[in-house]
Design a protein that fits this description.
Blueprint lengths: L5 H6 L6 H5 L4 H10 L21 H12 L7 E4 L2 E4 L20 E6 L2 E7 L3 E2 L11 E2 L1 E2 L2 E2 L12 E6 L2 E6 L3 E2 L11 E2 L18 E3 L2 E3 L3
Antiparallel strand pairs: 1-2, 3-4, 5-6, 7-8, 9-10, 11-12, 13-14
Length: about 220
């Protein structure tokens, strides 16, 4: 179909303007026109356009993948792996920038002001130095801290200090016994020659003497 322009209406001659309306400049001419600052057909994409012409770089692709995979977590939570977890959960490190667990020695973990802290100590252990980073470091079954921090068992006579079930006790030296059951005076009985505790507490020599832990009758 012929298209008639203004000239055809004025002098009754048909004018075919199809070529003028629909022609586009070759790519080389378009680049040259852009370089000279002339107007060009907006339908021709500019390869230097950061939106239309540039291919996405590896960083852009990586960022897009990370943003699409990371869950959007609510306030007070953070993303660890593919889940949102509480910032008050010591199993995920408490702080916003870590997912590693808090793991105190011989104790329970807690979160305080966004930091790992020490909760309750395990049975038989104490935080005697008040340093949270080394957990509950003290064995409360030792004579130096028997049952509680700083509870030191004294070294009784003829014995070595000991802690048994959280209470001070004594390990008697060979030949001695704590026959009166008074830890304060240690192992007071001499089992090798005490006729009332001959060889063992409560063994009485009715006659004779106690020699080397044995009752001996001397007629």
């Amino acid at each position: 179909m012929a298209v008639f322009g203004c000239n055809a209406l004025l002098d009754n001659r048909p004018a075919d303007v199809n070529a003028d309306l629909f022609a586009t400049e070759p790519a080389d001419d378009v680049d040259a026109a852009r370089g000279a600052g002339r107007d060009v057909d907006a339908s021709v994409p500019d390869p230097n356009d950061p939106v239309l012409g540039a291919d996405p770089g590896p960083d852009d692709v990586a960022d897009a993948g990370t943003d699409s995979l990371a869950p959007q977590c609510a306030a007070g939570t953070k993303s660890c792996g593919d889940a949102c977890v509480s910032m008050a959960d010591p199993a995920y490190g408490c702080a916003a920038d870590t997912c590693g667990s808090c793991a105190p020695v011989h104790g329970e973990a807690a979160c305080v002001a966004g930091q790992c802290a020490l909760g309750a100590c395990a049975a038989g252990w104490g935080d005697c130095n008040h340093v949270a980073t080394d957990g509950c470091e003290t064995d409360l079954s030792s004579p130096a801290s028997c049952g509680a921090c700083g509870m030191k068992c004294p070294a009784p006579a003829h014995a070595t200090a000991a802690c048994v079930a959280g209470a001070c006790a004594a390990q008697c030296a060979a030949g001695f016994g704590d026959c009166n059951l008074k830890p304060a005076d240690g192992c007071e009985a001499q089992l090798l020659k005490d006729k009332h505790n001959c060889g063992a507490c409560g063994t009485i020599c009715l006659v004779g003497t106690c020699q080397n832990g044995t009752c001996v009758w001397n007629p």
